[in-house]
Design brief:
With 722 residues, the protein is an alpha+beta fold. 55% of the residues lie in helices and 7% in strands.
């Protein structure tokens, strides 16, 4: 063994972040590994990059046209090693956040951003990519390879490869600042969420709360030091964590406590050391400057350069169509809720509103839903224990896509004892094709809110074989309490199906180039297609009855409750659509119309959009933008509309199964295999519209979305293709 390889092996042995491939050894990774590991990694990769630059420059000077093998294949290991190590650290920041990890992350982030920029702006690589596209070797590439090269060229140009001198220095400084601000924003939201708690001690304060929430909040009190806390006697610790916050607003009869919790929630990260308001203005100003340096009028235009939507106006047209279709329905729904609430004169006066406020809507919506449909979400929880839900989900995946999923716990290191590990096999050949982690439960002290899928390992050719993909599936659902399994709300079931849909696109890809495998290189406004598609199956009879089993008796969900779920599916749909339209439009307006240091503030933009997309005027202190992580610390900046754009695709895709008949198992299986072989298999190797047309036989129409949302009877929205 050479001295160099001995040194490399020694570094890897001492620091698990330098392994660079395979499953992460989570049990061995500590915050103290981050700084030395990333510093050494960047030093190693910079040497590899310089060597590649030299080779490419030499070839170009000699007139030797680059090939896939001489250009893309040498670049890939550099970016993959970087992605492997940094991906682990980013993952742990989301699921096992700590002051030590945060400090280490922030310490090395500038160096990592600098190196990533160095790759993206590398002139030798960029020139070689252009030369490859113009050479005779271009005809030797398959369509997936060509799309990767073209995307790499576009991304280099959008990363400032064409800049030089002072504009380049300014662009790179902006990149650094935006990365740091994004991390700060996310940390502030996490810290503000976990900083608040409300301990209730009197039974009268928790009147109306369901047993599941009483158990959860008593458990939270025990974890906070109240050793004798019980669900029956308290104390009960109320937090802003979603499994607590949402049920509390829906069921707590104490209106004053609902108001207190609501006002606290909408003002998270908007004051003191955790105030995100200044960060928002800095982020928006820097994004606009970045876009202008690249020749775009706005950051929205820059964002759309990587998406399906052709223009800001096209997005606004979709938003307006949905707004106009849902607005009157939303007004009727709100009027019904107000009349219902004010008519409940038999309730104690201090709990009965004279007018409905924001903190009343969830409570009275739930009461009206219970009466109108005789449906109680909490009463359904016992029928959705996580183990049975997983059985139903995996059974659906086998019926649709011909895959078999089995537990593989113990075969991979995990970051928390609650994390599961699963194997995915082809049901016919029994060949293993993928794996995934599942981290299902809320942990507000260390885990950020929401739910997501992320890549652990991406499929690619590896020697004579193929490297199998591995996914992270992360949710924040109700944890097991008092010896019971995790009993899920129906919304939590939908969320699990949603994230599993993302995972399927990552795991069932048949693309052997990591640059276009799974979700890589898929336009952002199409990436929600498989996830939203999977949500539809929660209402499918075979799927639902395959998982809705009482956790104690094994009894199936009563037929009448299934019918109630179907009947209630479109309850308050106008308000639900209007809420998402508001988020999407505010996002687009901030990134296309807002002028830093102009006459209109960020909050004025929010209020202007709210006039046409909300029915209750935002409270004066409403600062939801300060916790809007999707657009300020996630990947949805000038892209939140993607949920609707992709829902047009997903609803139309699901309608192909409906047209064949969901009870027709043979036809469902046939269409499911076609979905697997197109949408799930082709990943980013082709444009999403081409992939969709291969599956559906035509371009998508909004008609299915209207029908699924219960708005098909409204003539104001014309059904048209995207």
């Amino acid at each position: 063994m050479s001295a160099v390889s001995e040194k490399a092996q020694s570094e890897t042995t001492l620091n698990p972040l330098l392994i660079g491939k395979g499953l992460p050894p989570f049990g061995d990774i500590k915050p103290e590994h981050v700084v030395p590991g990333i510093e050494q990694l960047l030093k190693n990769l910079e040497g590899e990059l310089r060597s590649l630059e030299s080779q490419l420059t030499s070839k170009l000077e000699s007139g030797d046209a680059p090939t896939w093998e001489s250009l893309i294949e040498p670049i890939t290991p550099i970016t993959e090693k970087l992605g492997w190590s940094w991906g682990i650290i980013g993952h742990l920041m989301g699921v096992q956040n700590s002051p030590e990890l945060r400090e280490a992350y922030e310490s090395v982030q500038p160096s990592l951003v600098q190196f990533s920029t160095q790759i993206n702006q590398n002139q030798a690589i960029y020139n070689a990519l252009k030369q490859l596209r113009q050479s005779e070797n271009w005809s030797d590439l398959d369509p997936a390879q060509k799309r990767i090269v073209e995307s790499d060229l576009r991304d280099a140009e959008l990363s400032g490869v064409g800049l030089s001198g002072e504009p380049k220095e300014k662009f790179n400084a902006i990149q650094q600042s935006l990365a740091e601000l994004s991390t700060q924003f996310s940390n502030h939201v996490l810290d503000a969420t976990k900083a608040f708690s409300l301990t209730l001690t009197e039974p009268e304060e928790v009147t109306g709360l369901p047993p599941s929430l009483l158990s959860l909040t008593a458990q939270a009190a025990r974890e906070a030091g109240e050793e004798n806390a019980t669900a029956e006697a308290g104390p009960w610790r109320i937090t802003l964590d979603m499994p607590c916050y949402i049920p509390f607003l829906r069921h707590a009869q104490r209106r004053d406590l609902r108001e207190r919790l609501y006002r606290t929630f909408i003002t998270r990260a908007s004051s003191g050391d955790l105030d995100n308001a200044p960060l928002i203005e800095q982020i928006l100003a820097l994004r606009k400057q970045k876009a202008e340096l690249l020749g775009f009028d706005s950051y929205a235009d820059l964002s759309l350069a990587r998406k399906m939507a052709p223009s800001v106006s096209a997005v606004e047209e979709l938003m307006e169509e949905l707004r106009s279709a849902s607005y009157e329905a939303a007004k009727r729904e709100l009027r019904e809720i107000e009349e219902f609430a004010i008519a409940r004169a038999h309730l104690p006066g201090k709990h009965r509103p004279e007018s409905v406020k924001q903190w009343d809507i969830p409570f009275w919506t739930e009461r009206m839903r219970e009466i109108k449909f005789d449906l109680n979400d909490e009463a359904l929880r016992p029928y959705f224990p996580l183990p049975k839900v997983l059985e139903g989900l995996f059974g659906l995946a086998e019926r649709l896509f011909g895959i078999s999923i089995s537990a593989a716990d113990g075969e991979a290191p995990v970051w928390h004892p609650d994390v599961r590990y699963f194997q995915v096999s082809d049901a016919e050949s029994r060949e293993t094709i993928a794996h995934f982690y599942l981290d299902p439960y809320s942990r507000p002290a260390e885990k950020r809110g929401g739910a997501w899928m992320d890549e652990c390992i991406v499929r690619a050719k590896e020697g004579e074989g193929v490297r199998l993909p591995v996914a992270y599936l992360v949710c924040n659902q109700s944890p097991p309490v008092d010896g019971k399994p995790s009993l899920m709300t129906f919304r939590e079931v939908e969320t699990l199906f949603h994230e599993f849909g993302h995972g399927l696109q990552h795991m069932l890809t048949q693309v052997d180039y990591s640059g276009a495998a799974g979700i890589n290189n898929v336009e952002w406004d199409a990436v929600e297609l498989p996830s939203q598609f999977m949500e539809n199956w929660c209402y499918d009879r075979d799927t639902l009855f395959g998982m809705a089993k009482h956790y104690e008796t094994g009894e199936a969900l009563p037929e009448e409750d299934y019918q109630k779920l179907l009947a209630a599916r479109h309850f308050m749909t106008g308000n639900a659509i209007l809420r998402q339209v508001n988020f999407g439009w505010v996002d687009m307006a901030l990134h296309s119309q807002y002028q830093p240091e102009g006459d209109e503030s960020v909050w004025a933009v929010r209020d202007r959009i709210a006039e046409k997309t909300t029915l209750l005027e935002p409270l004066a202190e409403d600062a939801f933008l300060c916790s809007f992580g999707h657009i300020f610390s996630g990947g949805y900046a000038a892209g939140y509309y993607s949920y609707f754009w992709a829902e047009v695709l997903s609803a139309d895709a699901f309608s192909s199964f409906e047209e064949a008949g969901l009870e027709n198992k043979d036809q469902v299986a046939t269409i499911g295999r076609r979905f697997r072989d197109t949408v799930l298999a082709e990943g980013g190797s082709r444009h999403p519209m081409d992939v969709f047309k291969d599956f559906r036989g035509r371009e998508p129409s909004t008609q299915a979305l209207l029908r699924h949302r219960g708005l098909v009877a409204l003539p104001s929205l014309r059904a048209q293709p995207l």
